[in-house]
């Protein structure tokens, strides 16, 4: 099963490299729900993401994600400590101006020009990210195994347009 999963992840990443120009090191935009789920299931994100993607990966959190983890209190203090060790993206939002999910979607924009892979466990955020072409999704399957989701319909539409335009 593990070999099938690795092969699938390689194919997905090759798709993003070919169609959207993703390059190493990949930038993984991480949500607080993903950090918390990884902490609970003892998944070391900085070690697992490069293994999962087969390339160097930079974990990134926005200021809003970090602030939200700090505001959630003692239950999420471990997640906030982990998030402190990641590259922090200056989003420019004032404290409490927007939620972490809104901040992540704003970072992606309409076509993900900075080539982020979004790591989240939040179903509503995943649905919003699927509408952005070129935004890859990583989640913890069963709460323990990180997986790269297949490209969304929006990404596949862009790939088909490029393919038809090249003929």
Explain what this protein looks like in three dimensions.
This protein has 167 residues and is an alpha/beta fold. The chain has a single domain (2-166), classed as 3-Layer(aba) Sandwich (Rossmann fold), CATH 3.40.50. 51% of the residues lie in helices and 17% in strands. The chain has helices at 2-20, 32-40, 45-53, 63-71, 77-84, 100-108, 123-130, 153-166; strands at residues 26-30, 57-62, 87-89, 116-119, 136-141, 145-148. Strands 3-2-1-4-5-6 form a six-stranded mixed sheet, with helices on both faces. The longest helix is centred in the N-terminal third of the chain and has 19 residues, at 2-20. The N and C termini lie far apart (37 Å).
Features:
167 residues; alpha/beta; Rossmann fold; 6-stranded mixed sheet; 17% strand
Overall CATH class:
Alpha Beta
Rg (C-alpha, Å): 16 Å
**Which architecture does the CATH hierarchy give at level 2?**
3-Layer(aba) Sandwich
Let me know the largest β-sheet: 6 strands, mixed
The class by helix and strand makeup works out as alpha/beta
Number of domains: 1
- Model regions low in confidence, pLDDT < 50 over at least 5 residues: none
Biggest sheet strand order reads: 3-2-1-4-5-6
User: CATH homologous superfamily, by name?
Assistant: 5'-nuclease
């Amino acid at each position: 099963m593990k070999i099938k999963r690795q092969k699938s992840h390689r194919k997905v990443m090759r798709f993003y490299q070919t169609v959207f120009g993703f390059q190493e090191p990949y930038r993984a935009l991480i949500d607080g729900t993903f950090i918390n789920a990884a902490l609970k299931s003892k998944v070391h994100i900085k070690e697992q993401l490069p293994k999962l993607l087969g390339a160097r990966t930079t974990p990134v959190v926005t200021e809003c994600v970090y602030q939200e983890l700090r505001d959630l209190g003692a239950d999420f203090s471990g997640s906030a400590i982990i998030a402190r060790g990641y590259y922090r993206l200056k989003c420019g939002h004032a404290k409490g101006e927007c939620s972490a999910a809104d901040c992540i979607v704003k970072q992606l924009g309409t076509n993900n020009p900075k080539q982020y892979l979004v790591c989240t466990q939040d179903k509503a955020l995943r649905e919003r990210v699927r509408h952005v072409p070129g935004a890859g999704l990583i989640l913890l399957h069963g709460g323990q195994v990180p997986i790269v989701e297949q490209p969304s319909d929006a990404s596949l539409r862009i790939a088909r347009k490029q393919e038809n335009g090249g003929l």
